[in-house]
Specification:
single chain; 143 residues; alpha+beta; 2,3-Dihydroxybiphenyl 1,2-Dioxygenase, domain 1; 2 domains; nine-stranded mixed β-sheet; 39% strand
Length: 143
């Protein structure tokens, strides 16, 4: 398992990550994905250019991940809620177990489920208020 910082911004993710790339180097995995790229999501016109997902790979075991919030969906950025611990799991089953146990008594934002981007994913706060994301990238042939 790896743990990666996940940073949220209020419309500044692209600028922040271009800055981080200039400082640290590294490459963007899969480019920068924008809200307009999400199929079937009802996104406000003025939020289409917000970043849905960006991952700056700094080395084999180090990356920084981030996205913009969506005010139209009630997201409010406050210092203290803009960072998650993101777990990159070794198996789908391990992700399910960790989600089930770590989210017990907490607040689930998105249950562990298959996503359109080819992964199983969950986001939640644990019972202590720590924000977590769990991700397992599906391998070829996996469902």
């Amino acid at each position: 398992m790896n743990i990666f910082p996940y940073l949220n911004f209020d419309g500044e993710t692209e600028s922040a990550f271009l800055f981080y790339q200039a400082v640290f180097g590294g490459e963007f995995e899969g480019g920068i994905k924008y809200m307009r790229d999400a199929p079937g999501m009802p996104i406000e016109e003025d939020e289409m250019d917000r970043v849905m997902h960006v991952c700056l790979r700094l080395s084999e075991n180090v990356k920084i991940i981030g996205s913009d919030n969506l005010p139209s969906m009630g997201h409010v950025l406050k210092q203290g809620n803009h960072a998650y611990l993101s777990l990159d799991m070794d198996s789908k089953e391990e992700g399910e177990r960790i989600f089930r146990e770590l989210s017990e008594g907490g607040e689930v934002e998105m249950a562990y489920q298959k996503t359109f981007w080819g992964a199983y994913f969950a986001s939640f706060k644990d019972r202590f208020g720590v924000s977590w994301m769990i991700n397992y990238d599906l391998k070829a042939g996996e469902e």
